[in-house]
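Notes from hallway chat w/ T.B., transcribed later so I don't forget. T.B. wanted the structure written out for a chain they're using in a teaching module, and asked if we could keep both sequence and structure tokens in one place. Agreed to drop them here.
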Amino acid sequence: MPAPERIPPRSLTSAELLAKGELTVLGRIREASNAVLYCSVAYGDDSAECVYKPVAGERPLWDFPDGTLAQREVAAYEVSRATGWDLVPPTVLRDGPYGEGMVQLWIAPVEGDPGLLALVDDEEPAEGWKAVALAEVGEGRTALLVHADDARLRRLAVLDAVINNGDRKGGHLLPAPDGRLYGIDHGVTFNVDDKLRTLLWGWAGEPLTSEAVGALKGLAEALLPLEPLAVRLGGLITAAELDAVRSRVEALLTTGVHPAPSGEWPAIPWPPV
């Protein structure tokens, strides 16, 4: 028997499937501010659902003049992978029915309230929660915005600090059925200026966990010039943006704490969900 017939075919990884498979547009997610298409992707016997965001459907942003939202989404995935946390669903840059765009594995939503964010009437957060800020809830009332003191969220807060995420809303947190937590919508990231806007300020000023320090040290090495990650990022973001990533990782390791709002930029995205 010829060798190819004796060796069973290797199943594709999710990233390989997204990159090689045939995209079929099934619908459009109309709540998004840019074009977001719900698709299937298939290659041989492998198939999955995914999201396709063509560059042609992006709205220009005056404060993000370089590159594309799609490139920054892929760059965020690459950095997430390098931490070992895999907080961003597999994401690739490829051609599609409407030209080049990013394609990301679809994460099926979890039914019910995931218990990650809440508005409470108390002045202090309850045990297991972290305070973010006071929020106006109408009729002259305010409530305390809190998020869960959750290790998955804490890892995501570190990733957001590294990639300088300008839009970490509640709707960009996706709990998966297997218990994992993913972050999505990373188009406004990697700016050289401080743009960090997030709902995950609960650990501001607190020491980084030993796990986070280890992940950041590994990331610092992976970002060295000519390392594979640095080369891949060099094709997705500008040289200045890549240097800024290195600087943010170094700053986190030097201070050893979660960053706090700078006061020079709105700290919480709007709307927050």
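Follow-up for T.B.: The two ends are 58 Å apart (CA to CA). Might be a good example for the class.
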